[in-house]
């Protein structure tokens, strides 16, 4: 019996990961290898250096195969560990690593040996990192706004881009041998009497280096599996190891010849993205569709049966949990709970225009039932043609796994059309990246998480004539004091001016980082997996891809809408509160006027109530944010797009914003994503869905996210599941885009916070990802507890 077929052993594997994920380790091996590699290639072209560094890492890094694994390939020298990428940023690690084991969330164990190594290695990178170069390019205005908490771009400041859907099918069909042969053929056609020819030569030679490096990487595992098989005493495990060796001798260099080779090839392709660039959100995409031809042929030939295929998927699911990344202390406030963003996506429409559900889709759900860990997340792509049985199976998972998250495929297609993509692409190729962001598999290069934008900070500046009351500094333009506004429309215009001004500075900051990536952090490996680069002979950051876009996340949406509703209701319509008095009380955090705060909390109309005036104002703010983003283009000519999702940035950004007119206390969390404000959802699930469906989601091309917390009793029995299915379908037919659920009682959350040892495997959906409750900071835990618990449909 396979390790993964035995329920007892399967639980042992889960326990291994749960224990490691509560205390993952930071490792120095990659930092050492890349430092020595860069020293050897000093003076070479950045693309050449990057390719050689990847070759050296894949040749020298420690490799192993765990006792239960059916797939090979690891990220670091130890399971569930995070490597260090010194080329991205070194100073923050030197300053912070002593705190990583005790910081509020996202804790890492850092051994004294590792600290010693990092203190030797990291000073060698002074003046040479992406972070230093990016900040040196950034104008004073964006630097000040970043420091004030107007925007955060930490992800792009210290690591590779990530956030893309690799062309896995290309590798499965051609292998890296096929890609290598394309590069060789292209080299033969270059005109080296022209500068362009030399630039292309550098790229294609890097492609050859990388393809050979990936081939040799897999051969290292083949040799390891052979040696392990020779010493293995259990016959079944010996056969498994020999199969791993056989597969790794072929893929990903050769085209995949069967299901086992296809899954292994996909995993190697995916894994090397994280070894190379440390980017967030390299997405597994519509893997069931991608792998299905190989599954079907292997089933037909008798090479594998359904149980064998499931075991491979279970092994794949476990392996995704080995991928972790280190965020600095500031970024960890915005990315709490180790989000990595590598979801699989099931459902949708196929090339024939029909439902894309297949037998493998069901097996992916079965694998999730067995593994039930952080990764991978699962996205369910709902369509009006969806297989009813598959929809039911996915909905049944929600009560126990907080997965999947649900997407409206038709609204996603409308987002594609809004972005200018063809009708055919919009209908058949829609997928999401990372959390909820848009991207075409294998075709788009996206900065989908370019920055988080603090919408509530703009509100605070509009209330104070451009002065930041937290610091006392002028950040924004003079748009008027409370006494100057004669009606609500004037104040709304002032807010819009602050948003426009701050967004322009945010774009300037992002542009500096995009230029820094272009010159300092080329990504030739990722370029092999994006359409256009092999044809053009240019790497993705040099403009080689066929499609680009840059996404900015607007954070604190409902906080701002509710605050505007309070101002409109109390100050201008009923004139029961003086605007100056309100702003003064906000500045004092309601210290001497708790009565006012309670009144604001109780009497303010709220986003989430299905009223035309509320929905109209919310739609106006939403549209303004989307239109503001859409006026800009990135350095490659790609569209700037807006989104409403926040990971945990609504907690980090909230700590930079004083009290707001909706009754929120100073420095407490903002509303998350597109959800109503925490604890204030007095309506039913139906009312929230109705309100959300009236937002013009298709305009937010980079996606919107709705979090909901359901009382467990709502999903009890088949009737509860059926009701939830009907509600989701109705919501999507009305125009909603996304929804995801936590199904847990608030008292359980409070008990888990007070007694963490009682809940070692308590998984919770934070945002567009699932993590262990005990890895979240107390601030984030409190924010989740404060989300309203829906007790009726």
TrEMBL record:
Domain annotation PFL: ranges: 8-665
Pfam family, one: Gly_radical
Annotated InterPro entries: Gly_radical, GRE, PFL_dom
Protein name: Formate acetyltransferase
GO molecular function, one term: lyase activity
Recorded GO CC terms: cytosol
Protein source organism: Marispirochaeta aestuarii
Span of domain Glycine radical: 672-793
Keywords: Lyase, Organic radical
């Amino acid at each position: 019996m396979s390790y993964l077929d035995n329920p007892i052993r399967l639980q042992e594997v889960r326990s291994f990961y749960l224990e490691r994920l509560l205390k993952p380790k930071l490792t120095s091996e990659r930092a050492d290898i890349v430092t020595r590699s860069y020293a050897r290639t000093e003076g070479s072209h950045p693309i050449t250096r990057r390719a050689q560094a990847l070759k050296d890492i894949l040749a020298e890094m420690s490799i192993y195969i765990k006792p239960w694994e059916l797939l090979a390939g690891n990220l670091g020298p130890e399971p569930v560990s995070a490597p260090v990428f010194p080329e991205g940023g070194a100073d923050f690690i030197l300053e912070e690593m002593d705190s990583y084991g005790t910081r509020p969330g996202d804790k890492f164990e850092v051994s004294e040996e590792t600290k010693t190594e990092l203190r030797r290695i990291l000073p060698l990178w002074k003046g040479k990192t992406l972070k230093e170069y990016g900040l040196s390019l950034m104008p004073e205005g964006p630097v000040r706004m970043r420091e004030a908490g107007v925007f955060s771009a930490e992800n792009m400041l210290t690591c590779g881009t990530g956030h893309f859907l690799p062309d896995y099918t290309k590798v499965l069909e051609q292998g890296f041998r096929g890609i290598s042969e394309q590069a060789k053929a292209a080299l033969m056609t270059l005109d080296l009497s022209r500068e362009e020819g030399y630039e292309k030569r550098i790229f294609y030679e890097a492609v050859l280096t990388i393809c050979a490096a990936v081939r040799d990487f897999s051969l290292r595992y083949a040799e390891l599996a052979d040696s392990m098989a020779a010493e293995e005493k259990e016959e079944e495990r010996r056969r498994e190891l020999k199969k791993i060796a056989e597969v790794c001798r072929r893929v990903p260099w050769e085209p995949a010849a069967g299901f086992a080779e296809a899954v292994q090839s996909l995993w190697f392709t995916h894994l090397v993205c994280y070894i190379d660039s440390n980017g967030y959100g390299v997405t597994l995409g519509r893997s069931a569709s991608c792998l299905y031809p190989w599954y079907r042929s292997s089933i037909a030939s008798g090479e594998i049966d359904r149980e064998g295929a499931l075991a491979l998927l279970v092994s794949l699911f476990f392996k995704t949990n080995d991928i972790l990344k280190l965020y600095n202390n500031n970024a960890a406030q915005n990315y709490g709970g180790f989000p990595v963003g590598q979801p699989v996506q099931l459902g949708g429409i196929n090339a024939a225009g029909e439902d894309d559900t297949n037998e493998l889709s069901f097996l992916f759900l079965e694998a999730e039932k067995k593994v039930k860990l952080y990764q991978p997340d699962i996205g369910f792509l709902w369509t009006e043609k969806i297989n009813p049985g598959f929809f039911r199976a996915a909905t049944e998972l929600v009560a126990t796994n907080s997965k999947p998250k649900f997407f409206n495929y038709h609204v996603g297609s409308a987002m594609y059309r809004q972005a200018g993509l063809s009708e055919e692409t919009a209908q058949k190729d829609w997928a999401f990246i990372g959390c909820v962001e848009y991207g075409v598999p294998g075709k788009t290069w996206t900065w989908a998480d370019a920055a988080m934008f603090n919408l509530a900070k703009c509100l605070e500046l509009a209330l104070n004539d451009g002065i930041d009351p937290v610091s006392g500094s002028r950040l924004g333009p003079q748009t008027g004091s409370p006494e100057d506004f004669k009606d609500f429309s004037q104040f709304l215009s002032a807010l819009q001016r602050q948003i426009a001004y701050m967004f322009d500075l945010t774009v300037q900051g992002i542009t500096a980082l995009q230029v820094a990536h272009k010159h300092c952090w080329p990504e030739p490996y990722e370029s092999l997996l994006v359409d256009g680069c092999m044809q053009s002979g240019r790497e993705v950051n040099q403009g080689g891809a066929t499609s680009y876009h840059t996404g900015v996340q607007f954070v604190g949406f409902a906080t701002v809408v509710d605050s505007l509703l309070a101002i409109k209701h109390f100050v201008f319509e009923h004139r029961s509160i003086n605007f100056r008095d309100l702003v003064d009380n906000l500045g004092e955090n309601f210290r001497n006027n708790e009565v006012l705060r309670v009144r604001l909390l109780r009497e303010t109309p709220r986003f989430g109530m299905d009223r035309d005036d509320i929905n109209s104002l919310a739609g106006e703010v939403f549209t303004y944010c989307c239109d503001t983003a859409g006026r800009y283009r990135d350095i490659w000519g790609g569209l700037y797009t807006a989104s409403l999702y926040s990971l945990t940035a609504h907690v980090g950004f909230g700590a930079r914003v004083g009290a707001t007119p909706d009754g929120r206390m100073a420095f407490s969390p903002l509303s998350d994503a597109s959800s109503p404000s925490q604890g204030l959802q007095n309506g039913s699930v139906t009312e929230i869905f109705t309100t959300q469906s009236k937002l013009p989601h298709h305009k937010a091309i980079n996606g919107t996210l709705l979090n909901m917390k359901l009382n467990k009793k709502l999903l009890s029995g088949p009737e509860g599941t059926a009701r939830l299915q009907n509600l989701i379908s109705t919501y999507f037919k009305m125009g909603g885009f996304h929804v995801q659920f936590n199904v847990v009682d608030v008292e359980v959350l409070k008990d888990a916070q007070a007694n963490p040892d009682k809940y070692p495997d308590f998984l919770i959906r934070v945002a567009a990802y699932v993590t262990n409750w005990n890895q979240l900071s107390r601030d984030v835990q409190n924010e989740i507890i404060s989300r309203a618990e829906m007790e009726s449909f």
